[in-house]
Amino acid sequence: MIAKQKNDISYQVVRSRRATADIVIERDGSILVRAPESIPDERIEDMVEAKRYWIYKNLAEWRDLNATRVLREYRNGEGFLYLGRSYRLLLVANQTEPLLLKNGRFCLQRDLVDEGAIEAAKTAFRDYYISRGSERITQRLNYYAPKVGVAPHGIDVRELGNRWASCSPNGNLAFHWKCMMAPQSIIDYIVVHELCHFHHLDHTDAFWNEVDKVIPNYGERKEWLRVNGAGLDV
Ligand SMILES: [Zn+2]
Predict the structure, then answer these.
(1) Cα(115) to centroid of ligand 1, in Å?
(2) DSSP structural state of residue 180
(3) At 156, phi and psi to the nearest 5?
(4) Could you tell me the distance, in angstroms and rounded to a whole number, from the CA of residue 159 to the centre of ligand 1?
(5) How many Å lie between the centroid of ligand 1 and the Cα of residue 132?
(6) Domain annotation for the chain: domains and CATH numbers
(7) Distance 5 CA to ligand 1 centre (A)
(8) What spacing in Å lies between the alpha carbon of 54 and ligand 1's midpoint?
(9) What's the rounded mean pLDDT across residues 154-172?
(10) Tens-place pLDDT, residues 106-123
(11) pLDDT at 156
(12) Who has the most CB within 10 Å: 97, 167, 181, 199?
């Protein structure tokens, strides 16, 4: 990844074996140019310049969506999402597990918060989503893989930065733990989207056609993720 600047626009370039270049606004608001190996730097600069108003417009939209980003406080009653539903937090004194979902409440070990380090509380949630996600997403993957007609090798749920999921050339799939905060229907869309990348690496019409075969209303789910994605955090 190479950092570049064109007038007031800072962006990063990542080159790969793709046919065409495009520009995307990442989940953290950074600008990324995805380019083929062969395209010269000047062509990329020209493209950024030509797309200047598109970039401004999309950055403004990104700011609007992220204005609703939630700043969590780890105190009693605070809501946390799991599979699209909000569960209130209950701080408990005697619990062996750091975090449990019990009787409609997220029960968090009080010590984790008392020590004042919210990192420990965040980690407890992350670990919870990773362990539940490994089971559930594997199950969804096993359900959808035959429908898409592919056979992924393995799956991993972890921190993935700006991506909801990724697909490696050896057939391993990774999913962001934050997927587990979204409703099941959205997780299914992310799973099918990733499986369809086994057929097509880029987001061409042929790719979306594959997604459409399995999830005909994928457009609504894709839009839900675009609008609500920033709110999925702990
Ligand atoms: Zn994709």
Answers:
(1) 40
(2) G
(3) -140, 135
(4) 17
(5) 23
(6) 2-66 (no CATH), 79-231 (3.30.2010.10)
(7) 26
(8) 21
(9) 91
(10) 999 988 887 667 788 999
(11) 95
(12) 181
**C-alpha dist (Å) from residue 19 to 16, 38, 49:** 9, 10, 20
Mean pLDDT score of the chain, rounded to an integer?
91
Distance CA 62, CA 65 (A): 5
- Which pLDDT belongs to residue 114? 76
Percentage of the chain lying above the pLDDT 70 cut: 97
Q: Which two tokens stand for residue 32?
A: 């990324």
Q: What is the pLDDT of residue 133?
A: 97
CA atoms within 13 A on the CB side of 86: 10
Separation of 25 CA from ligand 1 center, angstroms? Answer: 14
Contact 69, 230 (CB under 8 A): yes
| 43-82 pLDDT tens trace | 999 999 999 999 999 998 888 887 766 667 788 999 999 9
- Ligand 1: centre distance to CA 175 (Å): 12
Strand partners, 107: 90, 100
Which range (71-80, 122-131, 195-204) has the least confidence? 71-80
User: How far is ligand 1, taken at its centre, from the CA of residue 203, in Å?
Assistant: 6
Q: Rounded to the nearest whole angstrom, what is the distance from the C-alpha of residue 194 to the centroid of ligand 1? A: 6
Nearest Cα to Cα of residue 230 among 68, 71, 85: 68
Give the distance (Å) from ligand 1 centre to CA of residue 190: 9
Residue 125 near residue 234, CB atoms below 8 Å = yes
